[in-house]
Fold this protein.
Amino acid sequence: MQLRLQEKVMDRRDILALYKWAVADCFRCAEIDTETTPLAEITPPSGHRYEVRVCERCLLDLEDEKRRHAERVGCEYEPGHLGQCER
Ligand SMILES: [Zn+2]
């Protein structure tokens, strides 16, 4: 049990290491001035580019969702590609 928990923590740190982080606001939980990573870029017709960023906690939530989805549909789960096209 202890070992399993340890593995899980390492996993999460490994996943976080796959993304680039900078202090900004999280669009998902609305936390401000926290470590965030860009998920997507939106360029509205006005041309003012906007980055959709999420904090570490939300990123891990989304990675969890992706992993569960991959298990359901029988795909191989690959962390680190959130925001990119999925099959
Ligand atoms: Zn968040």
About this structure: The pocket of zinc ion is lined by residues 26, 28-29, 31, 54-55, 57-58 (CB under 6 Å). The chain has two helices and three strands.
